[in-house]
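Reopening: structure tokens for the adenosine-5'-diphosphate complex, inputs below.
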Amino acid sequence: MYSLLSVLILLLCALLAAQIYLFVKYRKIKKIHFRNLRLLRSLTKTINSVRYGNLYERVNDEISEIFPNLAQSVNSMIESIVDREDMIKEYQNDLSKKINVLKEIEKLKEDFVATLTHDLKVPILAEKNMLNFLLDKRFGELNEKQTEALLHLKNSNKELVELVEIILETYKLNETKIELNHEETNVNSLIEETIEEMRPIADTDAIQIKYWTEFDRKIKLDKFYMKRVLKNLILNAISFSNPSSVVDVALCNDNKNIYIKITNYGKGIKKEELKHVFDKYYTTAKKFRKVGTGLGLYLSNKIIQAHKGRIFIESKDHEYTTFIIELAQ
Ligand SMILES: Nc1ncnc2c1ncn2[C@@H]1O[C@H](COP(=O)(O)OP(=O)(O)O)[C@@H](O)[C@H]1O
Ligand SMILES: [Mg+2]
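Re-run output (same inputs, fresh job):
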């Protein structure tokens, strides 16, 4: 009986000892678990901080002590991000230096062209005066062939004047914003006046300019700039027309807007070209052995935008092209 009791007590003592052991062990595991959770949180904080650009952040000493390999990997990953960031900064500096040099070269080139063009304008205008004197017979009578040759020269001179003015206007536009001088203008008269100025150039290619309108009211616009646009569009219409064809100009309106439509009959503009024609320097003139700068439509578009209007194009390949200027009344 006594021996059974002592075995039972022994068993109870062993059970108690095991329970005490498990309790101590559990507390230790729980402590480790909470410490690991805290370290993990701190690691996540470090990684997030790096993610949002704080490249001075590093894994803390406690993590380094307990998980040395993990801490080293994360720290060296941050170091390599820092290195790459430095490389990118250096590359960006280099790139922006190169862009500045290119911009300076572009500016020098444009200044050079503008100065040259400006200087060219003087002899071209002197030539124009001289041709007018000759045609006015101030230096004596002319025979038919001489008159014809001089008229031809006068038209080329006029085209040169237009070209020089487009280049100079575009240059001015690069330097300053377009400042419009709005005046009550009779658009009908302005179009008629411009057509008369362009007619001699059209005559050279046997092109007839026809004009039609029902609108005869005044609207507010900048006469000088609007004439520049009309000249550009009519010059283009003449340049890209079939020989001996017609350029149709029309002025009409609806309740809100007026529309100036300039149509020519020729190669037309292909769909894929349409989105480029207003780009600076875009030209196909050389293809047709014509002189072109690719600035005319770029300048015209800027001028119409400054008037809060728009230019749009309707064109059918190998048939016709219509440029339409839309302006609020
Ligand atoms: N009426 C038109 N018919 C066909 N193509 C045109 C017409 N007007 C302009 N274009 C096209 O748009 C291009 C750009 O015109 P523009 O800016 O005036 O430059 P440029 O006349 O100096 O070539 C022309 O080279 C031509 O390809
Ligand atoms: Mg042009």
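The beta strands are 183-186, 208-213, 218-221, 246-253, 257-265, 310-316, 320-328. The mean pLDDT is 92. Marking as resolved unless the reporter disagrees.
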